[in-house]
Amino acid sequence: MVSPVWLQIRRKNRLKYQITGTHDVDKGWMKEVRKANKDVQILPRVLFEQWTSNDFKTLSGSENEIETMASTLVNFLTTNNMDGAVIELWMQTAAQRSDVIHVMSHLSGSFRDRDLTIIFVIPPPNNLESGISTSISREQFEKLAPLVDGFSLMTYDYSTGLGKTGPNAPIDWMERCVKKLDPDAKFRSKILLGLNFYGYGYRASGSDSLVASQFLKLIQDFPSKVIWENDSQEHFIMQELPDKMQSFLAFPTLKSISVRIELAKKLGTGISIWELGQGLDYFYDLL
C-alpha cells in the first residue's frame, strides 16, 4: 500500500462536504506505480481539516450528515481510480473518541460496498513515564478493529512530543504502544507499526525535523561522533559547531530500522513508514 498525502475533506455547510487537495493528485504517477507493481494499492491520506468541535458534533449526531460525507469521499475515490484511503481524523475529546466509532461504522460500510480499503490513523501514547493511554481506549480499539482493514499507529515523535531532546521512538515505548491497545494479540495483524525515515536536529535554539539531504549536509559540514544508545535502540550523532555550540542529531540507521522490523515481527504487526523519500536510499534494502 502507498499513501500519498494529497487530500483533505472539509465540512462546508449542512449536508455539504468538499474534497480539497485535488490539484495534487498525480494521475501519471499513479499509472507508473501500478505499471511497476500491478498489485499495489494506492490509498491517499484523507485529513479531516478545518473541522470545528461543532462540525464534528453535527456529523456524529446525524445519519444524513454521515452518509453524505461518506458518499462524497467514496465517490471521489472511485471516480479517480483509487483503492481506498487512510483516514486521519483527530479526536480531541472523550466524546469525540466515542462518536468516531459511529462515524467509522458508516464510513466502513460505504467503503466495503465499493470494495475499497480503509486504514485508520492512531496517535501513540503521549508519555511513556506516566503511561497515558493512546487517543483511543482498548475498548474503542476493539470496536473499531472489525470496521477497518488496518490501523496506522504513529509510533514516532516521542521526544519532540514531550518537548525534550532525545530519541524519536524508543523501542520499549513502541512495544508498549502495541500491547496497550491489543494485549491479547487479537488484532495485531491489523496494526501497522510506524517507522520514521526522517530525523531531528537539536540545538540550544530548538529542534528541527531533518530529511536525508539535510542530514547528509550536516555530517559533511561538521565533525561528528556517532553513538549507539542501547535503551532506545537508536543512533545519535554529536557535533561540535562553531562558537563552541553543540548539535545533537537523531536520525534512523540500518541498525535502528532493522531492530524495529524485528519488533514488528515479534509482535505480529505490519509496518508503516513516514515517509517515503525522506530517508536514505539504502533504508529500503531492509524491506
Automatic annotation (TrEMBL):
Single GO MF descriptor: chitin binding
PROSITE patterns per record: GH18_2
Classification via Gene3D superfamilies: 3.10.50.10, Glycosidases
Gene Ontology annotations for the cellular component aspect, listed alphabetically: endomembrane system
GO biological process, alphabetically ordered: carbohydrate metabolic process
Annotated GH18 domain residues: 1-287
Pfam families for the chain: Glyco_hydro_18
Name of the featured protein: Chitinase domain-containing protein 1
UniProt superkingdom: Eukaryota
InterPro entries reported for this sequence: Chitinase_II/V-like_cat, Chitinase_insertion_sf, GH, Glyco_hydro18_cat
Similarity field: Belongs to the glycosyl hydrolase 18 family.
